Backbone:
C-alpha cells in the first residue's frame, strides 16, 4: 500500500499538491494502490510518482506530467491522458483499454505487455518505446512516431497505422493482419516473422532496408493512382 498522507494531500487539490511538492522536492510521492477513480488530475505534477497498481479508471489526466512515473499494473481504463507527458514512465502490465492517449509523449517508455486495445494514440511520440507483447489491436496510431521502438510480438491487428513512422522499429513476430498501413514508413524496420500480407505492404510509403517476413516478397509500394480529366466540351478542329 502507498502512503495515505500522500493520497490525502493529492485529493485536496492541485494547489495544495503543488505547494507540498515544492516544499518537499526530495520526497518521491507513494500513491501505489491509490483509489483515484474519476479523479480530476489535469495539468498536475506527477513526475516520478509511484502509482503502481493505482485505480485511475476514467481519471482526467489531460496535460499532466507523468514522466518517469511508475504506473506498472495500474488500471487506466477510459482515462483521458491526451497531451500528457509520459516519457520514461513504467507502464508494464498496465491496463489502458479505451484510454485517450492522443498527442501523448511516450518516448523511451516501458509499455511491454500493456493493454492498449482500441486506444487513441494518434500523433503520439513513441520513439524508442518498449511495446513488446503489447495489445494494440484496433488502436489508432495514425501519424504516431515509433522510430526505433520495440514492437516485437505486439498485436496490431486492425490498427489504424496511416502515416505512422516505424523507421528502424522492431516488428518481429508482430500481428499486422487487417491493419491499415497506408503511407506508413517502414524504412529499416524488422518484420521477420510478422503476420502481414503483400497486399497490406503495398500501401506503405517506404520499405527500403526493411527485413521482410519469410513468406512475403518485398515489392515497391503501390504508386498513387492518377486520373486524367477529359473536357467533354472540346471539339475537333
Residues:
Amino acid at each position: 500500500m502507498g502512503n495515505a498522507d500522500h493520497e490525502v494531500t493529492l485529493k485536496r487539490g492541485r494547489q495544495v499538491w503543488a505547494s507540498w511538492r515544492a516544499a518537499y522536492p526530495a520526497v518521491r510521492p507513494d500513491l501505489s494502490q491509490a483509489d483515484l477513480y474519476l479523479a480530476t488530475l489535469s495539468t498536475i505534477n506527477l513526475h516520478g510518482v509511484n502509482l503502481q497498481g493505482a485505480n485511475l479508471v476514467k481519471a482526467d489526466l489531460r496535460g499532466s506530467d507523468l514522466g518517469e512515473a511508475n504506473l506498472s499494473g495500474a488500471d487506466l481504463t477510459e482515462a483521458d491522458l491526451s497531451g500528457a507527458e509520459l516519457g520514461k514512465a513504467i507502464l508494464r502490465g498496465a491496463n489502458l483499454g479505451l484510454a485517450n492517449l492522443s498527442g501523448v509523449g511516450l518516448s523511451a517508455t516501458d509499455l511491454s505487455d500493456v493493454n492498449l486495445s482500441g486506444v487513441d494514440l494518434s500523433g503520439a511520440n513513441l520513439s524508442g518505446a518498449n511495446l513488446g507483447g503489447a495489445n494494440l489491436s484496433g488502436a489508432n496510431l495514425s501519424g504516431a512516431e515509433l522510430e526505433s521502438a520495440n514492437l516485437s510480438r505486439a498485436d496490431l491487428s486492425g490498427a489504424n497505422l496511416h502515416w505512422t513512422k516505424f523507421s528502424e522499429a522492431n516488428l518481429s513476430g508482430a500481428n499486422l493482419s487487417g491493419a491499415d498501413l497506408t503511407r506508413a514508413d517502414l524504412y529499416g524496420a524488422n518484420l521477420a516473422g510478422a503476420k502481414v500480407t503483400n497486399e497490406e505492404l503495398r500501401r506503405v510509403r517506404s520499405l527500403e532496408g526493411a527485413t521482410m517476413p519469410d513468406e512475403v516478397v518485398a515489392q515497391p509500394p503501390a504508386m498513387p493512382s492518377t486520373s486524367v480529366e477529359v473536357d467533354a466540351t472540346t471539339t475537333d478542329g
Remarks:
- Helices lie at 4-11, 14-23, 198-201.
- DSSP finds three helices and no strands in the chain.
